[in-house]
Write a structure and sequence with these properties.
The complex is a heterodimer.
Chain A (H helix, E strand, L loop, with lengths): L1 H8 L10 H133 L6 H22 L1
Helix pairs in contact in A: 2-3
Chain B lengths: L1 H7 L26 E3 L2 E3 L1 H21 L8 H21 L2 H4 L3 H16 L15 H32 L9 H44 L5 H42 L4
Antiparallel strand pairs in B: 1-2
Helix pairs in contact in B: 1-7, 2-3, 2-5, 3-5, 5-8, 6-7, 6-8, 7-8
């Protein structure tokens, strides 16, 4: 407070003439600020700003690469899906074809078996008929002989003659049958 | 400052009491030394200058000493201020490539000048240190020395002079006139205006605040209270206005410094 009163007493200095002490102190004060900021604090923050920039750019890069990967996976998946669909269609087609072929084969086989069975049946019938006719011929011969023997009253057991006669008779019978038929 | 000052003058001095108005003047800007340190008479403005640098360093220390990738509040504010000078002034004027080197200097300059101006309206300090010509002159001197050394470093001796005087053959007949004008303008007047622009703004602003503060006190007597009220409103208005001017002048000071550096670095002046 007294300072001002005292100052007033002094002759005021022209305001545009710098006071050397003030100039020196001002420069020192500025150099202090500049020293701290330029040597330590601003490099500090620059490093962090750079790191932040890298982190942001790195994040963007990561996101980009992830997107590219996702895209490729999607394409792969789509390709696989298409392939699978194609494969399924192919398998269906094949199955249909195979089914048709099997049915054809089965039909042919059935036909063949049927024919075989029929043929076997015919053969059997023919054989049976042959056996039946043979045994019939024998039995009829014997019966006829017996009957004739009884009717004639003489023994006609001379087999040689007997069989000849019988055969002749039967042949005649057959001929007749043939004729009738 | 103003309150102290009012008290420093006769506190009983009021209007209608046969006492003249204790008008502020050049003596408002003079201080008796607080102490004498090593032959230097240490005054309040000097103390404020040193305190100012401590405030700036302290602020940036708090903001940037341990910077984080995800900034805290202090760091965020610091980064905003740093970015304002770096991008808003240096990159704008000098360019990113050439300007990067001068960013620390310009950031220091801006915040140093700003706090020096700001003291004007900070209670107890209440004195803009930059209203003493020595402080802006010192800073303008640094810029001036930088400008000259950069000019000669960049263009050589002859090229440097050509750059300073704006030598351009295409000017023809008026070339000598331009050379003389540019010589005085760039070399002699420019550093002076650089310092005086800041000094005068702060000087005038402080004078106004002190004047209205003193008037408020002086008018507090009888009918004078009405005028005192008006004067006090002016104190508030001027304080708000000074807040704006302080920032603007700090900005302009740094802007001009950048523009001079840019001039030294450019091919043609």
């Amino acid at each position: 407070m007294n300072a001002l009163l005292l100052a007033q007493a002094e002759e005021p200095q022209p305001p545009l003439i710098p006071h050397l002490d003030e100039l020196v102190i001002g420069l020192i004060a500025f150099v202090i600020v500049f020293g701290f900021l330029a040597k330590k604090l601003l490099p500090n923050i620059n490093k962090v700003l750079e790191q932040r920039r890298e982190a942001i750019e790195g994040g963007i890069e990561k996101a980009e690469s992830a997107q590219i990967e996702a895209q490729s996976v999607l394409e792969q998946y789509k390709a696989q899906l298409a392939e699978a669909r194609h494969e399924a269609a192919r398998l269906r087609q094949e199955a249909t074809e195979q089914g048709t072929a099997i049915i054809q084969e089965m039909k042919a086989e059935g036909q063949r078996q049927r024919e075989e069975i029929i043929a076997a049946g015919h053969t059997q019938i023919a054989a049976d008929r042959k056996a039946a006719s043979a045994s019939l011929r024998q039995d009829v011969g014997k019966l006829a002989t017996d009957l004739a023997g009884k009717l004639v009253g003489e023994s006609l057991e001379d087999s040689a003659r007997q069989s000849r006669t019988i055969d002749r008779f039967l042949d005649e019978l057959e001929e007749k049958a043939e004729a009738v038929r | 400052m103003s309150a102290d000052q009012t008290l420093a003058f006769d506190p009983d001095c009021h209007i209608f009491s046969g006492c003249g108005f204790p008008a502020p003047g050049l003596h408002t800007f003079m201080y008796e030394p607080i102490a004498t340190v090593g032959g230097i008479e240490f005054t309040k403005p000097m103390l404020l200058a040193i305190l100012g640098s401590i405030v700036v360093v302290g602020f940036f220390w708090a903001a940037f000493n341990k910077p984080k990738l995800i900034p805290g509040k202090m760091q965020m504010v610091g980064e905003a201020g740093y970015d304002f000078v770096r991008r808003g002034i240096v990159y704008e004027i000098i360019g990113k490539k050439d300007g990067e080197k001068y960013v620390p200097f310009m950031v220091s300059l801006f915040f140093f000048v700003w706090i020096m101006n700001l003291w004007s309206i900070i209670p107890l300090a209440q004195f803009p240190v930059t209203s003493l010509i020595a402080f802006p002159a010192g800073l303008a001197l640094i810029v001036y020395v930088m400008w000259i050394s950069l000019t000669f470093k960049k263009h050589g001796f002859v090229g440097g002079w050509k750059n300073i005087v704006g030598y351009d053959k295409s000017l023809g007949a008026i070339l000598p006139m331009v050379v003389v004008l540019e010589f005085f303008s760039n070399l002699l007047i420019r550093p002076f205006t650089h310092a005086v622009r800041l000094f005068a703004n702060m000087f005038a602003g402080h004078l106004l605040i002190v004047m209205f503060s003193l008037a408020t006190w002086y008018l507090m007597n009888g009918l004078g209270f009405v005028y005192a009220g008006a004067s006090f409103v002016m104190v508030l208005v001027m304080t708000a206005f000074e807040l704006f001017i302080q920032a603007v002048q700090a900005y302009v000071f740094v802007l001009l410094a950048c523009s001079y550096i840019q001039g030294a670095l450019s091919e043609h002046h």
